[in-house]
Design goal:
Number of helices: 14
Largest sheet: 5 strands, antiparallel
Distance between the termini: 46 Å
Structural class: alpha+beta
Strand content: 15-25%
Radius of gyration: 21 Å
Shape: globular
Number of strands: 14
């Protein structure tokens, strides 16, 4: 991978600062933020706080903004081209989400989480030529993945609280999927659903890749290749067919729904505070697709933290998420199992591919095998087998429509 040089990054930051001069979002300083892979992210200190940046969120900072600059390549790898029009899809989506109902109820557990506000950042300004977005800054937050892998996770998110966080995220996602399928959002689907570059990318890093990964360890494919090939071709088609209303279990999806894009409020010391707000960020992958991509991706991501890092709190978060999203059809449940399996397998490529495996081979093989078996059971509609899997509660009697 060949990231942009320091000189190039400095030039981009200067360009962004110059573009924002003369707007209400002119910044006296831009500081590069870590964590972004596709875009260049900065925290900007406003020369003058704008009335637009006043928010009811206690985690939002009126004196700072997030400046997101998109290019036609991946920020951490100049050799990887990426469709820059993704920022137009994100702009349209964020404008629509500004009016999305976002109060959800967990119904159980932590008193702070009976009612949770879940929201996306506000878009303050967009420059269509420079491909720059100015976004609401949730300054005092940590992403869920960072919290889960922290050494203090047992104190921060004990079981009941992890369950409640998962339930809140699941309830919000169910609401988003339903809202985005309403007739009132038909024009939004037409504008952002095709997001062709990101649809191709999502397919590339999932269904185009999982069999290639398994082939690196032939024992995981032996006796299953024909079925896995069928799964690949069928699911690849989901990314190729045009957005059409009334396709079962399809609609607008976030497209990159994992713990790193869920923010939890923290205090100045970085400690997680009362969890009465959650924030969903990074909407450039929004696309028309199968809802299993969002649901299975999130569940696969949570399980990944348990499998490789031993994060016990991931398991109640998974259970809470399944309960929060609520009952699903059998067709959707089996597709979720397939995508959760693909997501777990494709962990293999969400790391430096040229580096040695970061975990012992038996641990890696077990993850690949679990992912493969989820795919096979989902494809075979093996409800009994899935009831004994990491997704068992989804396949209980009361959770299937």
């Amino acid at each position: 991978m060949a990231p942009a040089t320091t000189t190039e990054e400095q030039a981009l930051a200067k360009q962004a600062q110059e573009v924002l001069e003369g707007t209400p979002y002119a910044c006296s300083e831009l500081s590069a933020l870590g964590g972004g892979t596709a875009n260049f992210l900065y925290r900007g200190i406003l020369r003058q706080p704008s009335p637009d940046t006043t928010s009811t969120s206690t985690s939002s900072s009126p004196g700072t903004v997030i400046v997101k600059l998109s290019t036609d390549y991946v920020a951490i790898n100049r050799a990887f081209p990426l469709d820059v029009t993704r920022c137009f899809a994100e702009k349209s989506m964020l404008e629509a989400l500004d009016g999305f109902p976002r109060r959800v109820s967990t119904g159980v557990g932590d008193a702070h989480l009976h009612h949770v506000i879940v929201k996306a950042p506000r878009l303050y300004h967009f420059d269509p030529v420079a491909h720059i977005q100015v976004l609401e800054d949730f300054h005092d937050t940590k992403d869920l993945t960072t919290v889960l892998v922290s050494p203090d996770v047992a104190a921060i998110l004990p079981g009941p609280r992890a369950t409640s966080v998962g339930r809140a995220v699941g309830a919000w996602l169910r609401g988003f999927h339903g809202w985005s399928s309403e007739v009132a959002q038909a024009d939004l689907v037409r504008r952002v659903g095709s997001n062709a570059g990101m649809r191709r990318l999502k397919c590339l890093i999932t269904y185009d890749s999982f069999l290639e990964i398994l082939d690196r360890h032939p024992e995981t494919v032996e006796g299953h290749r024909e079925t896995l090939e069928k799964v690949r071709k069928t699911m690849q088609y989901e990314f190729e067919r045009p957005p059409v209303a009334d396709q079962p279990n399809c609609g607008l999806i976030h497209g990159d729904f994992w713990g790193g894009n869920v923010l939890l409020p923290s205090n100045a010391q970085g400690d997680i505070t009362a969890l009465n707000e959650l924030f969903i960020i990074d909407w450039e992958n929004v696309q028309f697709g199968h809802r299993a991509v969002d649901i299975g991706g999130f569940l696969g991501d949570l399980y990944e933290r348990f499998h490789f890092k031993g994060v016990e709190e991931s398991l109640p978060a998974m259970e809470g998420f399944i309960a929060g999203y609520g009952p699903v059809s059998e067709d959707l449940a089996y597709a979720i199992a397939i995508h959760a399996g693909v997501h777990l397998i494709c962990w293999y490529y969400r790391r430096d591919r040229n580096a040695p495996l970061p975990y012992l081979l038996p641990i890696v093989l077990k993850a690949l095998t679990i992912g493969r078996d989820l795919m096979l059971m989902g494809w075979a509609r093996d409800r009994k087998g899935l009831q004994s899997s990491i997704l068992g509660s989804m396949f209980e009697d009361g959770n299937l429509l």
